[in-house]
C-alpha cells in the first residue's frame, strides 16, 4: 500500500498475452482494478478494431436487457439486487447468454403482441356491447313515442332558420317520412372519442345539410386504449339518414373522425341475440387475457431474479472487449501486446492475477510483463480509503497533483476542519453538525446501500468524515470562544467580579467598566477560552475583535509557513538543490522577517503590558498598536508616542532589529527573482560545451535535468530524472519572465494572503453576532412571556428559533465558512508548493465501470 | 505574569500528549503515517488556539463594560454583594 503523502510510484509495463489467454487475463485485471491500459492503436477507427463484433453483440445484449428491465418496471415487479458480483463469463458462455436473452425477448414480444391483439379484440367487443345497450334506448324511444318525435320534427322544420343559427342539433327527417312503417331509415352505429363529439356533430350537420339524425350517449366507464394503454372516455352514437349517397358521406365522416362503426341489427330480437353472443365472447376473452397476463408475469418474475446479475455479466464482457481493442496484435497473430501503467508496489498482485487468468483459460504459455522506460509523466495515483477520499477530492477539484509531488491531503485532514471551525466556532452549532455527521458515519452501510440519486444528499454523504471533523473542531473552538448558540458557559467561574462598588454609585450611572488594575480582575485568566463575562459586556466586540484578528494572522502566517515548508520536501525529493537555495530559503526569510515578526510582536504585546502599571512605560496607555508598528516598520517611519512611555518600542533595540529584518526581506526579492535564472544560464553555458552525446541522452529522457548526470536505469526513482522544472527546453527569456511572475506572485501574495486570513476573524465575528441576535431577537421573546401563555409562546418561538438556527446558522453559515476554508487552502496554502499538473490514474476496474453504468442509468 | 501554572500545565500536557505521545504509540498499520500526522496537527492546532486565547486574556488592558443591572446581578449571583 502506498502512503498518501505522495502519489504511488508508477511504471509503464508491456504485457504479452496469448490470444486465447488474453480474455481471462484481462478479466482478472479488471477484478483487481490496478492497471491503466494505453491505447496502442489510436489512429485505428473504432469500427475497424479487432473485437468490434463482440462489442456490438454486447451492446445488443444490453439493449435486450434494458427492454426486459423496462417491462419489469412497467409491471412493478421488484428486481432482486443481491449485490453479488459474478465473474465475467467465459467467451463461450456469451453465446448461451445471447440465446437466453433472445429467447426471453422473443417470448416477451410475442406475449405482448398477443396481449395487444386480445385487448383490441376485447375493446371492440366492449364497445359493441355498449352500442347494443345504448341504442336499445334510442330504439325504445322510437317505438314508444312516435308522437313526440313527430311533433319535434315538425317544430324543428318550421323553425328551420333558427335551428340553423343555433348550431348543430339532431335533426334529419324529411316530411314525407312520418309513416312509422317506413320510419326506419338507414342508420349506422359506432363509438367515438368523447372530446370529438361536438366537432363530429357539426361536421355531420354541415356535410349532410341537416339531413341526418344523430343520437349519442356517453359510456360511463373509461376504456383502455390497447396501443398506448391509456384510459380514454368514449361515446356511443347512432346516425339515421336516408339514401346511399348520404350513407357514403356519413361513413367517410366517421372514418375521418376515427369513429369505429359496428353492425347493429334492426330487429330487437336480433339485437338481443347478438348481445348474448357478445357477452359470452367477452367472458372467453377475459379468461384468455388473464392467462396471457399470467404467463407474461411468470416470465418477467423469472427474469427479474437474474436481471441485475446479467447486467453485470454483460457489462463486464463488454468492458473486456473494449480493453482488448486497445491492444496491439503481434505479427504472428498469436499474441496480443498491451501497454499499461501499474503501481510498482502492486506488480506482484498483477503478476498473480495474470497467472490466475492463464490457469483459467488453460493456456500453457504464461503472460510476460515487462517494465519499460518512458520519458512520459506517469499518472498520479493516490491510495485513498473511505476516510481520506473525501479530502482528496477537495484537491483533485483544484488540480490533480503532479506525479510524486507532495500531496497536501494528509495535512488538510486537520487544517481544513480546524480553519473551518475558527470561522464556525460555536459549541451548539458544532454539536448539531457532529451529531448529523456521526449518524451518517454510523449508518454508513445501510445508507450506502440505498443509493440515493439526490445530489445534495450525495454531497453530504460523500463528505461525511469532513463534516464530522468540522463539527468536532467547531465544538472545540466554540468552547474556546465560549459560544454556545450565542450564549456563554461559566464552567470554571469568571475571572472578573464586582468589588468596591456601592449600590448608590452603581445606580447613578448607566454602565461601569470593571477595572483590570483593581480587584475586579482576580489576576489570572479563565482557564479554558474566553471569560464568560465578555458575553455580558457592552465592549465585547472591541475586545474580541482584537483577539480574533490577532489569531487570524497568527494562524495564517503559521499555515503559510507550513506550505512553504512542504515545498522544501518537494525540492529535496526531486533533488532540486537550485530551487532550495534560490527559492525556498529566500521565501522563508521573507515570510519570517516580515510576517512572523508581526506574530512575535503580538505575543510581546500580550505578555508585556500590565493594566496595573499605569503611568509607566509598560502601562496600558503605552501598549503600541501592533499593526501601526508593523506598517511604520515597513515604511521606515517613526511611531509617535506619549511622553510617559519614553519610547515607541516594545523592547530595547527594536528599531535596529526591525531595520535589519526589513533589509533581509528586501534582499530576498532580487534573490528570488534573479538567482535561479542566472544559475541556469551559467550551467547551460557549461553544458553547451559538452559533447553531442549528451544531447542525445538528453533527448532520450526529455525531462532530464541539465545539471545531473543521467542514469537511465529503473532502480532510481523515475521522478529524479524528471523532477527539475523542465527548464531545459525553455529559452532563457521565458525563464526570466517565468521567474519574474513567480517573484511578484510570492511577494505581493505574502501581503495579500496574510490579509486574506483576516476572513477567519470576519466570518467568526459574523457567526457569533448572528447567533447572538437570533437568541435575543427570537428565543428571548418567548422566554420573557409570563404565565401559561409563556409555555405556548415558547413552544412556537422555539420552533422558529430552531429552524432558523439550523437553516441559517448551521447550513448557510456552514456553507460559507466551508467555501472560505476551501479558498484558504486552494489559494493561500497551495500556491506555496503545489503545482497540480498531473493527470489522474484511471485503472481498468469493473467496480468503477459498473458504478458509473448504474449511475448513468438512474438519472 | 498573570498566568496560573495549573491550566497551563494541564492543557500543554493534554495537547502535547495528543500531538507527541500518541503518535509514538500508534500501532503499526498501513495508515500509521497518516494517523501520526493527524494527531500531531490536532495537538498543534488545538494547543496554539487555546494558548492564544489564554495569553490574550492574561494581562487585560481593558475591562468589560457592564450595564448597571448586570453589575447588580453579577454581584449577587457570583457571591460578592454590594455594600
UniProtKB/TrEMBL annotation, chain A:
Entry keyword set: Coiled coil, Hydrogen ion transport, Ion transport, Membrane, Transmembrane, Transmembrane helix, Transport
A GO CC annotation given for this chain: vacuolar proton-transporting V-type ATPase, V0 domain
Residue span of region Disordered: 700-726
Coiled coil regions in record: 51-128
Locations listed in the record: Membrane
Membrane topology: Multi-pass membrane protein
Keyword Cell wall biogenesis/degradation in annotation: no
One of the GO BP terms on file: vacuolar acidification
Main location: membrane
Transmembrane segments annotated in the record for this chain: 413-442, 462-481, 551-572, 584-606, 656-675, 792-812
The protein's role, per its UniProt record: Essential component of the vacuolar proton pump (V-ATPase), a multimeric enzyme that catalyzes the translocation of protons across the membranes. Required for assembly and activity of the V-ATPase.
Similarity section: Belongs to the V-ATPase 116 kDa subunit family.
Protein name: V-type proton ATPase subunit a
UniProt organism field: Sitophilus oryzae
UniProtKB/TrEMBL annotation, chain B:
Metal-binding is among the record's keywords: no
InterPro entries in alphabetical order: ATPase_V0-cplx_e1/e2_su, ATPase_V0-cplx_e1/e2_su_met
Keyword flag Ion transport: yes
Keywords, in A-Z order: Hydrogen ion transport, Ion transport, Membrane, Transmembrane, Transmembrane helix, Transport
Transmembrane segments annotated in the record for this chain: 33-56
Broad class of the protein's primary localization: membrane
Bilayer topology: Multi-pass membrane protein
GO cellular component, one term: plasma membrane proton-transporting V-type ATPase complex
Location within or outside the cell: Endomembrane system; Membrane
Top-level taxon: Eukaryota
The family this protein is said to belong to: Belongs to the V-ATPase e1/e2 subunit family.
Assembly: V-ATPase is a heteromultimeric enzyme made up of two complexes: the ATP-hydrolytic V1 complex and the proton translocation V0 complex.
The protein's name: V-type proton ATPase subunit
Organism annotation: Sitophilus oryzae (Rice weevil)
